[in-house]
Specification:
By secondary structure, the protein is of the alpha+beta class. The chain has 3 domains: about 90 residues, Gyrase A, domain 2; about 120 residues, RNA Polymerase Alpha Subunit, Chain A, domain 2, CATH 2.170.120; about 100 residues, Orthogonal Bundle (DNA polymerase, domain 1), CATH 1.10.150.20. It is about 30% helix and about 30% strand. It is built from 9 helices and 16 strands. It has a 4-stranded antiparallel sheet with strand order 1-2-14-13. It has a 4-stranded antiparallel sheet with strand order 5-9-3-11, with helices on one face. The protein is flat and about 90 Å long.
Length: about 325
Amino acid sequence: MRKIKVAPYMPTEVEVKEIDANRAEIIAYPFESGYAVTLAHPLRRLILGSSIGYAPISVKIEGAAHEFDNIRGMHEDVAVFIINLKNIRFKIKDESDKVELKYSFSGHKEVTALDLNNDQIEVVNGDLPLATLNEDAELNFTVVIAKGIGYVPSEDLRDEVDRDSIALDAFFTPVRKANYKIEPVLVEDNPNYEKITFDIVTDGQIGPVEAFTNALEVMNKQLSVFGGVLDVDIGNTPVKRNNDDSELKLFLQPVDSLGLSARSFNSLDRAGLKFLGELVLMSETEIKNIKNLGKKSLDEINECLIEHGFGSEFELPDSTRAILVKKLEQLKA
């Protein structure tokens, strides 16, 4: 017999299984039926789409005018060299968002990703080949490594790179795989609960657990936008609020904190206007009709409203207006 519930069951168990340095399973249970996929699917998308990684965004090769050129003494043509370069996964060692690296190789040599390691960056897949040089070869190139998320095509990066550099498609995502499976789990003889198992593989720029926790942080921040939809009791009437606390505080700034001239402040003070929100609620005509308010003071007040984001095109939502009116009435009672 099913029991009547007043709240969904809260999961209590979470397990992390580190399979290797770049792969982990994260398991959580028990979820109410249907809740597992509701949480797992957006988390998977965030793991794949919001994890920060590093990628080369441009390369400038001495002696090469474009990606279809050739370099004397280098076995690979420039197009193959670029493909090899894009396959290399970098990590910037400090907190920089972008670094420019210069390299020079000459003579007979098999250049690999490991040869690109230096004080600024670390290569996490150093066994990859980059170029094969003959005895008379000389390879000089400059590559720019940037931090980012997702994928950015070279067309969108042309304005960010030097004119004589070749813009590269940037594959920032450090997550190679992010899958999940949902299985039934028994809770107090009820088999209708669910367990989520995430299987996450990264390329070594970040760890799989870090990718998962980053996705959780992003989800929390994205959901925080709804934190402003609260039930606020004003008197005996509950009103839904669409603005957050910081926005309401902006409206409730005292007039004497706005930096107005003494003439403008005195005109507002004599009219009984104490808060910025009172000016926001007024029409342009109403402000003009404030007693003893001259043109210079009017212009100053209008500039002040614009500086605070309340220009002539600003429209206060009805729900926010109702809350603000009530709040101002309380403060001035």
